[in-house]
Amino acid sequence: MILHSISSCVKNVEIHASIAPDHKSVFLNVEVKNEFMRGPGLWKFNNTLLEDKSYKDLIEFYYPQILTNYPKVVDKQLLWELIKMELHAITIKY
User: Fold this and answer.
1) Domains of the chain: which residue ranges?
2) Which of 66, 92, 89 is nearest to 79 (CA)?
3) Which secondary-structure segment (H or E) carries 11?
4) Fewer beta carbons under 10 A from the terminal one: N or C of the chain?
């Protein structure tokens, strides 16, 4: 009994004997394709954090460390994106 919508993803089905005499084990091998696309999502920065002293101290502490993580990045746009990515992760944890 497999849903029709996923039946094309099933590669193999096997039925084996089980420990219990009145039961069987079913092994189902499914290949999931990349058809299930997720949207880009949306994250908005809560700008009231800019008034939070401990948050600002946290960012001032991590910013120099973030820059040392990417010493060989010369493209300023790429560096900016990497900085935003790191600050995003720090902000979410905060």
Assistant:
1) 47-93
2) 66
3) strand 10-17
4) N
Assess contact for 70 and 79: CB atoms under 8 A: yes
Coil, strand or helix at 27: strand
Contacts of 9 by beta carbon, 8 Å cutoff, 6+ apart = 30, 31, 32, 33
Contacts for 91 with CB less than 8 Å, ≥ 6 apart:
45, 49, 55
Looking at residue 25, the DSSP 8-state letter turns out to be: E
**Distance between CA 81 and CA 46 in Å, rounded?**
19
25-80 pLDDT, tens digit per residue, is 888 888 877 766 777 788 888 999 999 999 999 999 999 999 999 999 999 999 99
Residue 80 tokens read as 């900016």
Predicted structure pTM score: 0.53
